[in-house]
Design a protein that fits this description.
The complex is a heterodimer of chains A (279) and B (712). Chain A is of the alpha+beta class. Helix content of chain A is 35%, strand content 24%. In chain B, helix 3 packs across helix 4, helix 7 crosses helix 8 and helix 7 crosses helix 18. Classes of the chains: A alpha+beta (279), B alpha+beta (712).
Chain lengths: 279, 712
């Protein structure tokens, strides 16, 4: 049963500073960006949350640009937390630097969801089936977290602490995702329950360059960065060796969408396909 | 004559639906209206021993003691309580009703009511059930002799799962109490079924109960019997509170609590000669009825009658049983048992062909029913028996033979299915229904009075076309009265592919009658002189049609529609994902009254059949649907539906209006077996649907096994 709207409250700050001040005062407030995940929880009555803070008006969190966080660093691709999938698909910069993110964005939901759903929301929502998560993990992205008092950057590989939990504190907001230059060919594949409007049963992002990077979603409580598998391939190991290692790096389960066996088998098949297609 | 029939006239309900003017039940409102909700069991088997209700007095609460009449949902067997009195047979069984003036006050109300249960061990396996709702036996010829004539006997077991009808508009009704009477508006297929159920539950005289169909957003059988339950619930609350009560399910409740297609297990043992003649068929059909009988008996009936497929065989034995399990009752769904059993026979045919080293097409050509042949029940087929014509047309249009050869050994596959579907109620069903239809003269034309409902399939338009041509009046001069039991006769339920063939024929008779009355006068002239006039026709079976319900033999249906599907697909070797790329759907339906709508039925039924074959899985855990949301109950999107090339063949049926037979259900019989047969062509042995990638992965045929299949 959906929650009655009268029981809900919504704060609508106009600036990031005001938003962070509100959160500092009241960390119980739940941020909403595109609301595409939050709404579902409310509708199905699975969310106990009643008080919200709307980020949609905070233009500071929009924008996609190349920035140099440290003068010594190479420019990184900075995608604002409120960037929607439509923004990402339309961005020439993302298409050039991170085509696998564009590929993932194109397969998320339908047009309505792509217009509303945000990258920050996908990361913060922390679902193991979040489609951008393997892409960001394979790209070695950093999540930029900001509170009223401080800003910090957390590597994607260290961001999640368990099933739907992360290092983000309740008074922090994700302001952006920063992606350093990615060296090598990028590869992405989503395996959903159907051809569109589907939650992923398994998805893989891979980078084949001097250093191989592989990340897989929906096969463990959090996105899996398959380091051992990638190192094996980087070091010239055979595909069969890498596939065996991959089997140990993931811990898929049976759920209403798929089975453990299927996810195991298909993870290995995807690895082979990635390797074949990026030769 | 013949200006409207056979042309795709403008839909009568089209403008209102497109502009949003059409009123669905949730668009309706009445002064002082309350909103109702249902509190359901959270166990699958046992008894309620105590009830704790923590609600303030502004809530209206009703239980079985508030039922003025008898506590059962009137359908076939009186076994299903309207509100549970103690014993619980399935999860989500309705126990209490709650109403409140503020719809939002009902959100989460179930958390404030608690039941103490005495639980018993539930049974979810129909084959282990000790309660049988219905058993049917069909025997023809001498089975032992048939097997004696065979060179080989081939066996197989085939399974199908639940399927949800997934009408876009969930179930909903409003009950409006009056002075010793009650009116129910609702999203429904069968106003008189609801009427009958309300009379039983309210204890009111039939004349004091009125049912009006609101505009209905799809049914597919899912609004055949369930609205009777829901209407009774709203009526109980309305009578108790003295106020109108609206009850609208949300998608989750609709998925959890309402009927689905019966899961089935079908076993075949077939005797066949070396050159491919089927000499004996031994078929066993088990259907999972769920917790109460509802329509299981008749679903089983249609299932077993179609179980031998459109094939001739002199010696056969069919045994069917519908069993109780501790799951929500299964019920009517487009096809009504026939998709399950024709899935089995059609998958079996391809396996037999493999074993005999014959092309499955050849095996079908050898055994297909021809005019003059007899069906499993001994019905002699007329000239319109069209198994071979549809088969040949589908093979030609699709390039089946060439593709079958070219794709051998690749990840592309092509498979076909041949099927038929009886139009109208089974056996003596139409005689028992004795449906009536009326036609009323108006100043400008005529008004149709029937209880047959428009649920998106085009009933109003199609019936008006028939009347227009039979009266030689323009289509635009024909109106259709709302399906309102106070105003229209009982033309029977809107089910069983019967509305066009049976009700359309009744109206054709009315129209000819009225035309005779008019003589040379126009409707306006006649109306001015004599005022309104109403003519009525009642069903009479075509001469010579006989059915023996004891022996389950005779003319099971007035006529059959015939279909052939050819499915082309690709299997992704990495993910086992199956992409149907093209379907050829050939259908022989007597006469397409409205070609665009008839094709729409075939397109839609085929897409729904593709969903049944590949995607739609009701995941049951502990007797409860675990994926009761559209996020996880997967139906095809347009991107999942292949291109569907529809061809209609017309071989008029002598007793249908302008030759028409039924078209609504047949299209869903064919896609699933054609899909599975195409998968077999690419080396996958699948005998259960949905053929999900997970199942496919498990069913990959080993190379040796494949070799045996095709050359032994
Ligand atoms: C029909 C449908 C289809 C979908 N399809 C897909 C799909 O294919 N793939 C997929 O991955 N997802 C899918 N989703 C899920 C969802 O659309 C995405 O996860 C989306 O990116 C969420 O973004 P949002 O801005 O709407 O998040 P919201 O719903 O606004 O928020 C989600 C969570 O993130 C938190 N949050 C949001 N922004 C911030 C921030 N800046 N800082 C801190 N916390 C924040 C919120 O508090 C909440 O916990 C689908 C959803 C629907 C309804």
């Amino acid at each position: 049963m959906p929650a009655g709207a009268s029981a809900l409250s919504l704060a609508r700050p106009r600036t990031l500073k005001a938003a962070l001040a509100l959160l500092a005062e009241d960390p119980e407030l739940m941020p909403i960006a595109g609301c595409t995940d939050v709404f579902v929880g409310l509708h199905f009555g699975t969310s106990g949350q009643r008080r919200f803070i709307d980020l949609w008006g905070l233009d500071e969190l929009r924008g996609i640009a190349l920035v140099r966080p440290e003068p010594s660093e190479a420019p990184v691709l900075r995608i604002g937390a409120l960037a929607t999938y439509t923004d990402i698909i339309a961005s020439a910069l993302v298409r050039r630097r991170l085509p696998m993110l564009v590929a993932a964005a194109r397969e998320i939901g339908g047009a309505q969801i792509q217009n509303r759903g945000t990258l920050g929301g996908n990361v913060a929502n922390a679902s193991p089936a979040g489609d951008t998560l393997p892409v960001l993990a394979a790209a070695n992205a950093r999540i930029v977290l900001r509170s009223a008092g401080a800003e910090r950057r957390v590597a994607m590989g260290e961001y999640y602490t368990g099933y739907r939990t992360s290092v983000r504190q309740a008074h922090e907001l994700i302001t952006a995702v920063e992606i350093p230059p990615v060296a090598g060919r990028q590869w992405w594949r989503k395996v959903g329950t159907r051809k569109a409007q589907a939650i992923s049963k398994i998805m893989m992002a891979g980078v084949r360059g001097p250093v191989v990077r592989i990340a897989i979603g929906s096969v463990a409580p959090t996105v899996v960065v398959a380091d051992k598998t990638a190192r094996c391939l980087s070091a010239g190991g055979t595909l069969a060796e890498a596939q065996a290692l991959l089997g140990d790096e993931i811990t898929p389960i049976d759920d209403v969408r798929s089975t453990r066996e299927y996810r195991h088998q298909v993870a290995q098949n995807l690895l082979a396909q990635f390797w074949r297609e990026t030769e | 004559m013949g200006r409207a029939v056979g042309t795709s006239v403008r839909r009568m309900d089209g403008d209102d639906k497109v502009t949003g003017a059409a009123k669905y039940v949730d668009d309706l409102s009445f002064p002082d209206m309350l909103f109702g909700a249902t509190i359901r069991s959270t166990i699958s088997c046992g008894e309620i021993v105590n009830t704790h209700i923590g609600l303030p007095p502004e809530f209206v609460v009703a239980d079985h003691r508030d039922i003025p009449g008898a506590n059962h949902v009137a359908l076939i067997d009186p076994d299903q309580p309207c509100l549970a009195e103690g014993p619980i047979r399935h999860y989500a069984e309705p126990v209490l009703l709650v109403a409140h003036a503020d719809r939002r006050a009902l959100f989460g109300v179930e958390a404030r009511i608690r039941f103490d249960y005495r639980e018993r061990t539930p049974n979810y396996d129909p084959e282990r059930s000790d309660t049988c709702f219905k058993q049917i036996a069909i025997d023809k010829g001498d089975l032992a002799r048939g097997f004696g004539d065979a060179d080989t006997v081939i066996e197989g077991e085939y399974r199908t799962g639940h399927q949800e009808q997934l009408y876009i508009e969930p179930n909903g009704v409003i009950a409006v109490p009056g002075d010793g009477q009650i009116t129910v508006y609702g999203s429904l297929q069968c106003p008189y079924y609801v009427h009958k159920a309300l009379v039983v539950v309210t204890g009111l005289a039939p004349a004091r109960v009125r049912v009006v169909q609101a505009e209905t957003g799809g049914g597919f059988g899912g609004k055949e019997e369930y609205p009777s339950m829901l209407a009774c619930h709203a009526a109980i609350l309305a009578i108790k509170s003295g106020r109108p009560v609206k009850m609208i399910y949300d998608r989750v409740e609709d998925l959890l609590a309402t009927t689905k297609r019966h899961p089935s297990v079908v076993r075949h043992r077939t005797g066949v000669t070396r050159d491919g003649r089927m000499t004996a068929m031994d078929i066993d059909v088990v259907m999972d009825g769920g917790g109460y009988a509802t329509l299981s008996a008749v679903v089983l009936s249609r299932g077993v009658i179609h179980a031998a497929g459109p094939y001739r065989c002199d010696h056969l034995r069919i045994r069917g049983r519908a069993m109780m399990t501790n799951t929500p009752p299964n019920g009517a769904f487009r096809g009504f048992g026939a998709p399950q059993t024709q899935f089995a026979i059609e998958a079996h045919i391809d396996r037999m062909a493999g074993a005999l080293g014959l092309d499955p097409l050849r095996l079908r050509e050898i055994n297909a029913l021809r005019p003059g042949d007899t069906t499993a029940t001994g019905q002699t087929l007329g000239k319109d028996a069209s198994a071979l014509p549809v088969l040949r047309e589908a093979v030609k249009r699709s390039g089946y033979k060439q593709k079958r050869r070219a794709w051998q050994g690749t990840n592309r596959g092509i498979g076909l299915s041949l099927f038929f579907h009886g139009s109208g109620f089974t056996g003596a069903g139409e005689v028992k229904l004795a449906s009536k239809a009326s036609l009323e003269l108006t100043a400008t034309g005529a008004r149709i009075l029937v209880a047959s409902t428009e649920i998106g399939q085009g009933t109003r338009t199609m019936l008006a076309q028939i009347v227009a041509d039979a009266m030689a009046l323009p289509y635009s001069s024909i109106e259709v009265h709302a399906a309102d039991t106070d105003a229209v006769p009982d033309s029977g339920p809107t089910v069983a592919s019967r509305t066009c063939m049976i009700v359309g024929k009744l109206l054709e008779r009315c129209a000819r009658d009225l035309r005779r009355k008019l003589g040379k006068l126009t409707p306006a002239e006649y109306f001015t002189r004599h005022g309104a006039v109403v003519v009525t026709a009642q069903y009479e079976p075509p001469p010579g049609q006989v059915w023996d319900d004891q022996r389950y033999a005779g003319d099971a249906y007035g006529s059959y529609a015939w279909g052939c599907n050819v499915v082309e697909l690709e299997v992704d070797p990495v993910t086992f994902e199956i992409t149907p790329t093209h379907v050829t759907a050939v259908a022989e339906i007597g006469r397409a009254i409205h070609p665009v709508m008839a094709e729409g039925q075939i397109q839609g039924g085929t897409a729904q059949g593709i969903g049944y074959a590949l995607l739609e899985e009701v995941v049951m855990r502990d007797g409860r649907m675990a994926n009761a949301q559209l996020t996880n109950y997967i139906i095809p999107t347009p991107m999942d539906a292949p291109l569907i090339d529809v061809a209609m063949i017309e071989r008029p049926y002598a007793h249908g209006p302008f030759g028409a037979k039924g078209v609504g259900e047949m299209p869903i019989d064919g896609p699933a077996p054609a899909v599975v047969n195409a998968l077999r062509h690419c080396g996958f042995d699948v005998r259960a649907i949905p053929a999900t990638p997970e199942r496919l992965m498990a069913g990959k045929l080993k190379v040796e096994e494949l070799a045996v299949e095709s050359f032994s």
